[in-house]
Amino acid sequence: MSDTKNNLAALAADVESALERRRSRSAAAISWIREAALLPVLAVVLVVGAILNSHFLTVSNMTGIGQQVSALGVVVVGESLILLIGGMDLSLESTFGLAPMLAAWLIVPAAAFGNGMMLNPYLGIGILLAVGATVGLANGLLIVKGRLNGFIVTLGMTILLAGIQDGIVKGQAPFNLPTAFGYLGAANIGAIPVSLIVAAVIFILTGLFLRYHRLGRAIYAVGGNREAARAAGIKVDKIRMGVYVAGGVLAAIGGLMEAGRVSSVAPTQGYGEGIIFSVFAAAVIGGVSLQGGRGNMVGAASGVILLGLVQNILDLENAPNYWIDAIDGGVILFALILARVIGGEASAE
Amino acid sequence: MGEPVIPAAPGPRATPAVEAAGIHKRFGSTRALRGVDLSLLPGRCLGLVGRNGAGKSTLVSILSGIYPPDAGEVRLDGQPAPSLGDATAWRGRIATVFQHSMVVPGLSVAENIFLGRQPQRRGVFWAGLVDWGRMRQQARKVMTDWGFDVNADTACGNLTVEQRQVVEITRALAAGTRCLLLDEPTAALERGAAERLFERIRQLQAQGVAILYISHHLEEVFEICTDVAVLRDGEMVLTAPLSQVTKDDLVTAMVGQKNLSTERSMASASSSRESAGAAATARPDLVIEGVTFASPGVFLGNVSLTVRGGERVGVTGLRGSGATTLARIVAGAEAPDAGQVRFGDHVLRPGDRAWALRAGIGYIPEDRQADGFVPLLGAAENISMTITDRIARGGFVGPRRREALAAPLARRLSLVSAGLGQPVRELSGGNQQKVTVARALASDPALIVAIAPTRGVDVASKELLLSELDRITAETGASLLLASDELDDLVICDRVVVLVRGEIFTEFTEPPFDREALIAATEGLGAR
User: Fold this and answer.
1) What residues of chain A, 328 to 347, have a C-beta less than 8 Å from chain B?
2) In the CATH hierarchy, which fold is given to the domain comprising A38-342?
3) How far, in Å, CA of B490 to CA of B513, rounded?
């Protein structure tokens, strides 16, 4: 009897350790693959693009893509931070529109649909950043202190902000932006757009911050196991508030880039264009988990680049205008499935 | 008290790592702790035992600084305990390894060890930056110093339960904490891992760490503890160095006097037994054959058991013994790794609850909040949930029809509610459980699988639920498979099977069952 018992216990231990070995081996493999998951896909897209159109791999086209996606990219950084702490923020797209709109409205002359105050453009940029921080703070207070649901808070905030964006200019698009205001989105240093450089710097600094700064590590801890983080003495609520504010500021900077690039602020910028879908898609395709605690800036950047390349190929190939949304949606779903297949169970959640 | 109360041996001039005096805690009408004293010296390992509901978890929470005692004082290292909100200060004096994991899965072992207090680079420019090299190095050093061997660079999500525990213990030691509170640390460990944990505990103890070890298993306490304390009904009924007590002393202290309610329901059980034969219609046999199941924390090895039609069988054992899992498998709520369950002529589809329901197996799940009812729906709707196919007309079910069906059951179980449409969320715990039981009975099952049907229920409801289960099985001839670690539940059974570590240890066939013999058997003691 006791022999049988020992045998069974040994069997159980064997099963356990075999399962364990398999799990840890595949987990190690998965984490390696996940980091690099999008690189082969990016390579394939580059090859396909090059075959389809000889203009695709030229420097001017590539920098053009860079300029186009950098605004989106900066917002993706903000959203990724918020996703990492286990939150979500739909209102980034409205901040992306309202912050530059309010600034431009105060800067440009009445003839260009300003309100006539004609503020100094640098002051305008300050206001733009303040709008981003304020919206983030409001979201943070409602979600963290008010314990309201993040989805519904930021959904309400999205619509409220978009309404203000439309309301202050009565549906007009302020134009004739001063050079200083448009510099970030429009200027080049040599052949390289300033927006691309700034976006790249933001990605790199955020990535390093997340990797090396104690607050960056705290962000992962808060998103991965909030209770454990709290027990470890991490100021969970402050971290969450701070991240919402950072997200708002980054969205405002993205909006400034977009305004400079098209040299006006359309009432539809952000919410009207529905950019939040691309933002979420880029983050999730890049392996940032919607459950929180998992993801990094390398992944998020690859997600942004992938979306930009595909968009560019469709543009170059003159994809029929009426179908562009359907193709976009299809591409996002396809990329998600691909990320799931390559990244395994844990990715694309 | 009839038990021997031996004061803990005074240590050699040492300040107790933990000292609790006269701790009282009350939750609503329940007095969870009634004047508990406890003292733990450095280098000692105090085993805290007691049956479910004795107050162990409450004491653990108070000592961990999760909530304050209503009265009494906690002193750590000779000083009054820090204020509740000061997580860092508490953690520096006493660190609890809870049953649920407190590691961050996405972070590495080194980072989890230094969570929230990573070594940082020096210099103005680098302020706040984590010094990864130093952190890894220090993590490795702490690991080697204490003789642990978990790779500091692995992500914690890839670790086994055992390794995560090691990480949590190391985290405490690295913070300078020399007092550990381990809350049922072996509950989720297989045998080999548990042995290794014991080895680590002995080693920590030898190096002067104070350990409070909470366990369900007396054998473990005898294996590694130096002292033992027994909680019963919120009182510390026995405190002694382990060398001065026997297992029998502990069992006696844990069980206490037989309470009257048991005697009473025992009597009612045996009386209804007489009438059972008469009313019983032929019900199919349940045959469990070679059921094997392995998951972290639970293991069933080749269990075979037959419940004859109309028979009422209790299955009991400590947490992790597999008693609950066996019942879940029969109910179709869990799929076994191997083996077969037959009910009459049917072979159960593994893990298919809907199929089991159609085959006539009613189910009272363990966790009523999670599986027992839908809190926002009314009592009648919850009760009739298992039989909407029978009462629906063309797919539609009206509230009146539902209530007509639910009313007799609700009356029978004395369900107290403001009408059968009242959301179950608003009912008391006892009445919620009645809804769960009524839901199982509504389908007129040939076999009722019940798991801990009276857990967390007030005394009156408890008696009523048990006697109704008793009466209904007697009247309808339905069989009963009752998995519970609550001995009072088992009095309605004809036969009780005791599981120890996933195997049938012994069987009691003659009611009334002897409480002490049952408890000893669940601990794996006593003749087979």
Assistant:
1) none
2) ABC transporter involved in vitamin B12 uptake, BtuC (1.10.3470)
3) 8
Tell me the three state secondary structure of residue A146. coil
Note the CATH architecture for domain B259-360+447-528: 3-Layer(aba) Sandwich (3.40)
Establish whether this prediction's ipTM goes over 0.85. Answer: no
Contact A293 B190 (CB under 8 A): no
Q: Is B24 left (phi over 0), alpha (psi -120 to 50) or beta?
A: beta
Place of tokens 């529109």: A97
User: Alpha carbon of A196 to those of A124, A186, A284: distances in Å?
Assistant: 22, 10, 22
CB contacts of B502 in chain A (<8 Å) are: 8, 12
- Does residue A19 contact residue B154 with C-beta atoms inside 8 Å? no
Chain A residues in contact with B120 by the CB 8 A cut-off are: 214
Residues of B with CB under 8 A from a CB of A: 87-88, 91, 101-107, 111, 115-118, 120, 128-130, 132, 154-155, 157-158, 160, 171, 190-192, 294, 296, 299, 301-302, 501-503, 528
CB contact at 8 A, B112 and B161: no
Choose the CATH number for B18-103+178-255 among 3.40.50.620, 3.30.70.120, 3.40.50.300, 3.50.50.60: 3.40.50.300
Residues 219-258 of A with CB under 8 A from B: 220-221, 223-225, 227-234
**What is the residue-level pLDDT of chain A in tens, covering all 349 positions?**
455 555 655 555 565 555 555 554 554 455 555 556 678 888 888 999 999 999 999 999 999 999 989 999 999 999 999 999 999 999 999 999 999 999 999 999 999 999 988 999 999 999 999 999 999 999 999 999 999 999 999 999 999 999 999 999 999 999 999 999 999 999 999 989 999 999 999 999 999 999 889 899 999 999 998 888 888 888 899 999 999 999 999 999 999 999 999 999 999 999 999 899 999 999 988 889 888 988 999 999 999 998 899 889 888 888 887 887 888 788 778 877 776 676 554 444 4
